[in-house]
Amino acid sequence: MHIVMVAVECSPIAKVGGLADVVISLSKALQQNGHKVDIILPKYDCMRYDKISNLRNVYDSLWVSYNGELYANKVAAGDVEGVNCYFIDTCWHRNFFNRGTFYGESDDAERFTYFSKAALEFLYKTGVEPDVLHYHDWPTGLIPVIFRDIYKPLGMNKTRLFYTIHNFAYQGVTSQSVLDSISLSPQSVPGEAWEKDQWGVVNYLKAGVIAADYVTTVSPTYAQEVMFSDKGMGLQDLLRRNHYRFSGILNGLDYEYWNPESDPHLVTKYSVKSLKGKYDNKRVLRKKFGLQEGLKPIVTIISRLVQQKGLEQMKRSIYLALSKNAQVVLLGSSPDPRVTQDFLRIKEEFTDNPDCHLELAFNEELSHLLYAGADLIVIPSIFEPCGLTQLIALRYGTIPVVRSTGGLADTVFDAFYSNQDIGSRNGFVFHESDDAALDSGLGRAIDCWFEQPDFFQKLIVNGMKQDYSWKRSCELYLYIYQGLA
Ligand code: ADP
Questions:
Q1: Is the pTM of this model over 0.85?
Q2: pLDDT tens, 256-290?
Q3: Predicted pLDDT of residue 93
Q4: Mean pLDDT lowest for which of 74-78, 175-179, 341-345, 439-443?
């Protein structure tokens, strides 16, 4: 099959969140299964160009109509981790992708609508008719609408339209004028995608769902949650009515990159067969942050410091772990200065404390040492579409303590209360988002470390043996792609 991904993020060249990781690692996995994959991205000025090889211009005058005028765009191509990527270069005066940032501009809807139109025009002009056009999240939500309105009537009949939504909290709600700018007739946008209470306002995520041949989100439990609870952020009813073409496929983890046996960031490599190296990393971690040696577990938190991730519960975990004689290392960063201030206050409170360190930064390298050196990781998310943190922790033998939501519920099984067999249990799970639930989950985990070391070791081994690579997830995507053909 020929699959074309259209997205606005792609690791490692344009990463903001999990979407970027999925786009590249799913593409690699599909390619390894013998399929042809291309990715179409905007040509941002702030991409990691050092991670693109063989970058060259492949198309010089891609004309796209915008606000009644025709504008020329260029298309470049290059290899990213062995996958061919096309980059749409909108070289006209609005400088859509030369802003030094991926998102967060006041004209994001216009930028990504223009990109979606240009991506489809490029396929049309070059005579490429993929079997599957796989588009992601709200920025490309209009792809199937533009495709059905403009390109299908021009003879592109073969292509199936596949939508993956990585987070229902971001929907892309914008005014009709953006449609006018790319000459898309308002009638082509399905009626339900218009926000009834606001005149002329269109919801990209809804449009993308209605006009798709198939829709997925990133874990089976999140798929249920968005259909049957307010986690659907207003799309519950639409999704329930379309349940026959909607499902959840768990994200995989890149097992080549996240591998304690070969991770270049670790002082000592280790594997499930020999865990000794894990404890060397624990020693290095303690030394790095001036923590005392001793018979204590290290509890870590590695997270964006945002409401979705359970800010209050993260804070509570620090105090609870210390009160139970554990050590704590938090690595977190926030886009909100008030949240940063809040955590800075806690950091100050524990200055020179031999059992606690807060690192308020985004530091990829340090995160590897934490995954390797810690014993427990707390993930108290309010909602979590899939979550990679728990998958990385399991791979590195660090036991996750999680709130049972979304992908966390699909991958972490409680040591004592799970209905999974004993060999599949790999963590500690709590259900409610109140203090008592967290205290119980984290309390049980720390007690287990102190009182049942052999059983704790068994949980580590269980987790490290589990397979959350892309292999299975990729097969599920292929199964659905093939069913649509
Ligand atoms: P989300 O994409 O919602 O932030 P995920 O669990 O899907 O959550 O992915 C989080 C990824 O970002 C993981 O790879 C995690 O290790 C990494 N990460 C989060 N915060 C930091 C940080 N402060 N420094 C380094 N890596 C971080």
A1: yes
A2: 889 999 999 999 999 999 999 999 999 999 999 99
A3: 66
A4: 175-179
49: left (phi over 0), alpha (psi -120 to 50) or beta: alpha
As a whole number of angstroms, the distance between CA 301 and CA 320 comes to 13
Q: For tokens 């000459």, what's the residue? A: 183
Which domains can be identified in the chain, with CATH numbers? 2-252+472-484 (3.40.50.2000), 276-465 (3.40.50.2000)
Q: Which of 363, 366, 364, 393 is nearest to 378 (CA)?
A: 393
Q: How far is the CA of 371 from the centre of ligand 1 (A)?
A: 12
Under the banding of pLDDT at 50, 70 and 90, the label for residue 45 is very high
Q: What amino acid is encoded at 280 in this protein?
A: D
Rg (CA), the chain: 23
pLDDT of 204-215, one tens digit each?
Answer: 999 999 999 999
Q: Rounded to the nearest 10 degrees, how much is the dihedral formed by the CA atoms of 187, 192, 196, 202? A: -60
**Cβ(387) to ligand 1 under 6 A?**
yes
- Best of 363, 367, 368, 382 to mutate for ligand 1, by most ligand atoms within 8 A of CB? 367
Report the separation in Å between the CA atom of 349 and the middle of ligand 1, taken as the mean of its atom positions: 25
| Two tokens, residue 273 | 């067969």
Q: What is the pLDDT of residues 14-31, one digit of tens each?
A: 988 889 999 999 999 999
- CA dist 29 and 256 (Å) reads 12
Q: Which residues of 462-476 are buried (b: 16+ CB within 10 A; e: fewer)?
A: bbbeeebbbeebbee
- Whether omega before 337 lies within 30 degrees of 0, making that bond cis, reads no
Is ligand 1 within 6 A of the CB of residue 369? no
For residue 371, the ligand 1 atom closest to its alpha carbon is 16
* Pairing, β 132-136 against β 2-6: parallel
d(CA 470, ligand 1 centre) in Å: 18
